[in-house]
């Protein structure tokens, strides 16, 4: 792609049924773009820029990051920061940029966990990499049993009060911890707006209490890895492609998982159901996650513009018959491919 100026598509808001995050005022696209493993220094910056521009043109105005996304950690935010400066300077108010802190980011006791020191210093570093004066959502990335929850939630509330974040969220929190976090934040006048858990046809733990909890609390859900990192796509049905996540150096998905016979059997059965619906397996997997009213958005990774486009096409068919859901349940078994 040349270094041309970006003129967004005028119809970018015409086809997306934005969804409200819980009982908040924040609306998000049903499918959002995640920056975990596809925006590091091992990627071609022009192709990253093309993915982000195309996403925005298709109504995807929510980008999900964390301090440690890359590789190396921090590089996803740096890449997006460059793209925002070049292409989106006049569109900041149209974008929802999320980031997080909670996993190991730098050496020493303050580069990990849930302390006020870590969260607020990390947020400042994220803003510097992104070239922004605020993010829209700041999450605590995972529970930290060693830090009082009062301190962690106090840091999120401080981030919002100081204007460095507009909304507060938690990720990978249990139902009980979510309830406690929401109560603490409410006392501090900063509602808990989003929870970010993993959720897919092969990873259904949220159905065991978390969805009911967020429903009651009025908290939205940003469901991550809805394609189970590519396992719920046609990517691995006839081998392991060279440029795929399972073939790469990432430790999060291995060749053993994608060649597992039980996984292969289930994925073929689900693919057949998808075919009958006129969808790809990836589209079925996304529609299935979005069938829950509690799920505000599915956070999807894409390594190409084509993948992104296919994923957004999901929005053309989100409806399920009860009989279809029952058939899916036979194969959408928690733990498959792990
Ligand atoms: N809060 C947390 O702890 C946490 C943890 C993990 C992720 N997340 C968030 O969730 C986002 C998504 O996670 P994820 O990347 O694991 O999600 P995913 O959407 O489950 O998997 C993405 C991968 O699936 C493959 N893919 C995507 N669309 C495809 C299509 N149409 N056809 C074939 N293959 C397709 C690509 O694999 P290839 O790369 O092989 O092409 C892509 O990298 C992250 O970027 C991040 O924002 C949050």
Distinct small molecules: NADP nicotinamide-adenine-dinucleotide phosphate
What is the name of the CATH architecture of the domain at 19-227 and 292-305? Alpha-Beta Barrel
Structural class category? alpha/beta
According to CATH, the homologous superfamily of the domain at 19-227 and 292-305 is: NADP-dependent oxidoreductase domain
Assembly category: single chain
Distance between the termini: 38 Å
Unreliable runs: none
Name the strands of the widest sheet in spatial order.
3-4-5-6-7-8-9-10
Number of helices: 11
Shape by Cα distribution: globular
Rg of Cα set: 19 Å
User: Considering DSSP H and I runs of 4 or more, what fraction of the residues is helical?
Assistant: 25-40%
- The SSE order reads EEEHEHEHEHEHEHEHHHEHH
pLDDT averaged over residues: 96
- State which percent range the strand residues make up: 5-15%
CATH class of the domain at 19-227 and 292-305: Alpha Beta
* Largest pleated sheet: 8 strands, parallel, barrel
């Amino acid at each position: 792609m040349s270094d041309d100026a970006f003129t967004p598509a005028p119809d970018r808001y015409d086809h997306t049924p934005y969804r409200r995050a819980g009982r908040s005022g924040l609306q998000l696209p049903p499918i959002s773009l995640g920056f975990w493993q596809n925006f590091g220094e091992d990627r071609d910056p022009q192709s990253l820029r093309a993915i982000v521009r195309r996403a925005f043109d298709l109504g995807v105005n929510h980008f999900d990051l964390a301090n440690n996304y890359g590789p190396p950690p921090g590089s996803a935010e740096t890449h997006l920061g460059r793209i925002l400066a070049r292409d989106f300077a006049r569109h900041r108010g149209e974008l929802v940029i999320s980031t997080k802190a909670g996993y190991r980011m730098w050496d020493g006791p303050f580069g990990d966990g849930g302390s006020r020191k870590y969260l607020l210093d990390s947020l400042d570093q994220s803003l510097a990499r992104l070239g922004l004066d605020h993010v829209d959502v700041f999450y605590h990335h995972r529970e930290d049993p060693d830090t009082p929850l009062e301190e962690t939630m106090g840091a999120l509330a401080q981030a919002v009060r100081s204007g460095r974040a507009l909304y507060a969220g938690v990720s990978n929190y249990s139902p009980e911890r979510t309830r406690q976090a929401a109560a603490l934040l409410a006392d501090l006048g900063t509602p808990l707006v989003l929870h970010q858990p993993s959720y897919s046809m092969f990873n259904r733990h949220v159905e065991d209490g978390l969805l009911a909890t967020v429903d009651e609390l009025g908290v939205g859900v940003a469901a991550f890895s809805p394609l189970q990192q590519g396992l719920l796509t046609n990517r691995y049905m006839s081998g392991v492609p060279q440029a795929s996540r399972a073939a790469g150096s990432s430790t999060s998905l291995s060749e053993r998982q994608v060649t597992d016979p039980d996984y292969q059997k289930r994925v073929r059965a689900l693919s057949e159901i998808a075919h009958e619906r006129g969808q790809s397996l990836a589209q079925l997997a996304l529609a299935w996650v979005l069938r829950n009213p509690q799920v505000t958005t599915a956070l999807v990774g894409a390594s190409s513009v084509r993948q992104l486009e296919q994923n957004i096409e999901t929005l053309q068919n989100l409806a399920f018959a009860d009989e279809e859901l029952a058939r899916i349940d036979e194969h959408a078994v928690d733990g498959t491919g792990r």
